[in-house]
Amino acid sequence: MAQVSIRINGRSYDIACDDGQEDRINALAGYVNERVREIAEAVGQIGEQRLLVMASLLIADELGNTQEKLENGTQQSAQVTGLSDAESDALADNIETMAARVEAIAEKLAQN
């Protein structure tokens, strides 16, 4: 298992991840850091925990909106491309799995 050191809101966090996932974790951390920075600019430094919770909620909202758009698009694509219900369901399951991974990473970050 690999270890990655990320930086969010000026603070370092050591995160364990699967081998080969280091670049992905760094990219996700950069995204989270950008969201935290945006919130801090808007409301000030209100405490690290609150900033991380607010960023997590913002990202979860973005994810939820994206899932809805993808599901609507998947339904429309399935009609246009002729995907079977099983294929559409598999695609939706894949999206949900990715969402769960992002939420788990956000939860780990909030715990540190």
Q: Which of globular, elongated, flat, extended, rod-shaped describes the shape?
A: flat
User: How are the strands ordered across the major sheet?
Assistant: 1-2
**Strand percentage:** 5-15%
Average pLDDT taken over every residue: 84
Helix content: over 70%
- Low-pLDDT sequence parts: none
Strand segment count: 2
- Give the distance, in angstroms, between the N- and C-terminal Cα atoms: 18 Å
List the total number of helices.
3
Radius of gyration: 17 Å
Structural class: alpha+beta
Q: SSE string, helix = H, strand = E?
A: EEHHH
The main sheet comes to: 2 strands, antiparallel
Concise summary:
The protein has 3 helices and 2 strands.
Describe the protein's architecture and organization.
Helix 1 crosses helix 2 (48-81) and helix 2 runs antiparallel to helix 3. The protein is built from three helices and two strands; from the N terminus they run ββααα. Strands 1-2 form a two-stranded antiparallel sheet. A hairpin with a 2-residue loop joins strand 1 and strand 2. It is an alpha+beta fold.
Topology:
Elements (H helix, E strand, L loop, with lengths): L1 E7 L2 E7 L4 H22 L4 H34 L3 H27 L1
Keywords for this entry:
single chain, 112 residues, alpha+beta, two-stranded antiparallel sheet, 3 helices
